[in-house]
UniProtKB/TrEMBL annotation:
This is DNA/RNA-binding protein Alba-like domain-containing protein. Signal peptide: none annotated. Residues 1-32, 40-54 have a biased composition (Polar residues). One of its GO terms (molecular function) is RNA binding. Transmembrane segments: none annotated.
Length: 250
């Protein structure tokens, strides 16, 4: 009995020392899977440890991305389209009694010798000023570089005047006249002819717009290439100009 048991035990031990090919293959597969899992864990842990704590990526307590965002240039959202130099300019007082073409021609005449001019209008004539500026842009003679809006105080006209006293004119006369002012004075136009108040009257606040236009390079080049037309434009009647004749080539 003892001999048979020993033989059986030795047979089992022999089977364990020499496993079948199927068992050996499964064991190798399990070992490979374990090695791949360990590699993935090691890679993930090393990435988490090195990425946020690198000294070269930190500047003043912030990462490179934060530093770049802080130092990025800011874009101005000012309503002014361009910075206009503080120099005296011709100002065209636009009125509602004439169409925008008349003020377009007047501005075109000024832009022959001046680089910039202003179109100024009170309530009732603002649309004409805007239309005249758009005519200049569509004709490629000038471009709008600034638009200013404000309120100004206007003295009403007196019905009767004291003998010996000259009649009081409105503070701002917008009858197609021309004046030269410093830019930026749209909020400080208080009195051009005096501040006396009429009896029983009161001052009026009216909206005002000032559109600054600048001569284009194409118009300047056209004037240089056509000196005769330049002289005619400077000396001619602004009411008798045909738009197609003065439109420069693009």
């Amino acid at each position: 009995m003892s001999t048979k048991r020993v033989g059986t035990a030795s047979t089992k031990n022999t089977d364990l020392r020499n496993p079948s090919p199927q068992v050996a293959t499964e064991s190798r597969n399990l070992q490979q899977i374990k090695e791949k899992s360990d590699n993935i864990k090691n890679t993930a842990s090393s990435a988490n440890l090195t990425t946020p704590t690198k000294a070269s990526d930190v500047k003043g307590g912030k990462s490179d991305i934060d530093a770049k965002l802080v130092t990025a240039p800011t874009v101005s959202t000012s309503p002014s389209t361009q910075e206009v130099p503080l120099e005296p300019r011709q100002v065209i007082a636009v009125s509602a009694s004439k169409g925008p073409t008349a003020f377009f021609n007047l501005a075109r005449k000024f832009l022959v010798s001046d680089e910039m001019c202003d179109l100024s209008a009170l309530e009732g004539a603002i649309v004409s000023a805007v239309d005249a500026a758009h005519l200049l842009e569509r004709s490629r003679l000038a471009k709008i570089v600034r638009v200013q809006t404000s309120y100004v105080t206007v003295e009403p006209k007196r019905k009767k005047t004291t003998p010996g006293t000259p009649p009081l004119q409105p503070i701002l006369s917008h009858e197609g006249g021309i004046s030269s002012v410093q830019p930026g004075d749209s909020h400080s136009v208080a009195s051009l002819h005096g501040m006396g108040r009429s009896t029983g009257g009161r001052e009026l606040r009216r909206a005002r717009i000032v559109i600054t236009v600048q001569r284009t390079e194409s118009y300047k080049q056209w004037l240089d290439e056509n000196p005769l037309q330049r002289v005619i434009t400077e000396d001619g009647d602004e009411e008798q100009i045909i738009l197609d004749d003065i439109e420069p080539n693009p």
